[in-house]
Specification:
Layout: E1 2-7, H1 10-19, E2 27-32, E3 43-45, H2 51-61, E4 65-68, H3 71-75, H4 78-84, E5 89-90, H5 98-101, H6 103-112, E6 120-123, H7 126-136, E7 140-144, E8 153-156, H8 159-171, E9 182-186, E10 191-200, E11 204-206, E12 211-212, E13 215-217, E14 221-224, E15 229-232, H9 239-259, E16 265-274, E17 280-286, H10 294-300, E18 301-302, H11 305-314, E19 323-324, E20 328-335, E21 359-363, E22 366-369, E23 372-375, E24 379-387, H12 390-401, H13 417-428
Parallel strand pairs: 1-2, 1-4, 2-3, 4-5
Antiparallel strand pairs: 6-9, 7-8, 7-9, 10-11, 10-16, 12-15, 13-14, 15-20, 16-17, 18-19, 20-24, 21-24, 22-23
Helix pairs in contact: 1-10, 7-8
This protein binds adenosine monophosphate and glycine.
């Protein structure tokens, strides 16, 4: 069978790589793909991004099913369009994708269904927002309602910063329509984890737990990015916490959406903040898999993923089982010069070590032209290493990273440090 993955990042490379391992899959098209998906013989890039043109392609080429990577096509209704043409696709409809595409929708939904999350208010009027900030004080969090490609959240440690964020979104319109409405919410303390599940409208299948590293620099310093590295499993998500997140967050979300007449299908990603007592709250929902979380998660997934996606599209996810490699997978993102501000493009990338049983490199912002691989985006590559321990995975991954180079390459050297610290604390306490 032939499959299609929509998107061009590291997440999509990892999804396509995994799907292509199925003996029944001949080819996975990736639209538009990147320099890595261009090199893999089981994958083929197609230079189409328009959803209607993609549906035409799927009909013409008899593609059996489509998996959508990023949020933008989902929020634009690619699932609605494919379904209206009788094409099999895994992802949420435009209506269901509002859990990510509108923070106000997500917050009001969580409130209606008593799903644990930070206290909040929504504003369109700058004066009212400023007054609310003064009443609440800092630290406080300001979020653009709409999709803002990772630039929509300001965690303000001072009231000055908070007022400036409100002005930039509501008064100066810096984020356009996405920032014409803002959510202002309580600052939550704790440790974050990514909780990602597959949903078929009714049934839920949890993927392995993971943890991202959002800041650019070691020790979680520097600006927020799309994610500088991730590993799976995340030891903070104990079996008890897993059960609680399913019971208090995931299942009420899926049932709540169904009850409101918006069946949720697709990947559902709850970004969690877990406080010192181990209580989880929902920071945000994403209607897709995480990037870079997907890369270590797919590296650990065993079996035929195409069958699981097929069951999900058919609404019979209750009969699917996922098997995981017991090892820890740890992914380190290699980013371009000047990421996340204005990443430089066009730097030549050295040879990348071939995939082994313990290391695989997924591409994101890369382009292959005339046999030469160059950088073409902020997050360029994600190297994943597998080992029995987090430290072991770090050692495999950084050994591989040391064999790769391009001008301006920057990466964190401490991915997985929380899991390492946790292990040490467990031993000593
Ligand atoms: P988001 O785009 O919603 O994932 O937010 C980006 C990052 O901002 C999150 O990963 C958190 O690190 C941080 N963040 C978001 N909401 C809060 C909050 N209520 N309290 C503390 N940090 C937050
Ligand atoms: N890694 C964070 C995200 O995908 O939203």
């Amino acid at each position: 069978m032939k499959l299609l993955v929509v998107g061009s990042g590291g997440r999509e490379h990892a999804l396509a790589w995994k799907l292509a391992q199925s003996p029944r899959v001949q080819i996975v098209y990736v639209a538009p793909g990147n320099g890595g998906t261009a090199q893999d013989e089981r994958l083929r890039n197609i230079d189409i991004t328009d959803p209607a043109a993609l549906a035409d392609f799927v009909e013409r080429e008899n593609v059996s099913l489509t998996v959508v990577g990023p949020e933008a096509p989902l929020a634009a209704g690619i699932v609605n369009l494919f379904r209206s043409r009788g094409l099999k696709i895994f992802g949420p409809t435009k209506e269901a994708a509002q859990l990510e595409s509108s923070k106000d929708f997500a917050k009001a939904f969580m409130k209606r269904h008593q799903i644990p999350t930070a206290e909040y208010e929504t504003f369109t009027d700058a004066a009212a927002a400023h007054a609310y900030l003064d009443a609440k004080g800092a630290p406080i969090v300001i979020k653009a309602d709409g999709l803002a490609a990772g630039k929509g959240v300001v965690v303000a440690t001072t009231l000055d910063e908070a007022h400036a964020a409100v002005d930039s979104m509501l008064a100066d319109n810096k984020l356009g329509d996405a920032g014409a409405r803002v959510v202002i919410e309580e600052f939550l303390e704790g440790e974050e984890a990514s909780f990602i599940v597959m949903v078929d409208g009714k049934h839920v299948l949890a993927l392995a737990s993971s943890q991202d590293h959002k800041r650019l620099l070691d020790g979680d310093r520097g600006p927020n990015t799309g994610g500088m590295g991730a590993y799976s499993p995340a030891p903070i998500v104990t079996p008890q916490l897993h059960a609680r997140v399913m019971r208090e967050i995931i299942l009420p979300t899926v049932r709540g959406m169904e009850g409101e007449g918006i069946r949720y299908t697709g990947f559902l990603y709850a970004g969690l903040m877990i406080d010192a007592q181990g209580n989880p709250k929902t920071l945000e929902f994403n209607c897709r898999m995480g990037d870079p979380e997907t890369q270590p998660i797919m590296a650990r997934l065993k079996g035929d993923f195409s069958k699981v996606v097929e069951l999900a599209i058919a609404g019979t996810l209750d009969s699917a089982v996922l098997e995981w490699d017991r090892r820890t997978a740890l992914g380190v993102v290699l980013a371009a010069h000047n990421y996340p501000e204005t990443p430089r493009r066009g730097d030549r990338i050295s040879d990348i070590p071939a995939e082994t049983d313990t290391a695989v490199t997924f591409h994101a912002g890369t382009t292959l032209a005339d046999g030469k691989l160059t950088t073409s985006g902020g997050r360029v590559l994600c190297v994943v290493g597998l080992s029995d321990s987090v430290r072991g995975a770090q050692s495999v991954v950084y050994d591989t990273v040391n064999q790769i180079s391009f001008d301006g390459m920057q990466y964190r050297r401490d991915i997985g440090y929380r899991a390492v610290n946790r292990k040490q604390n467990d031993r000593h306490g």
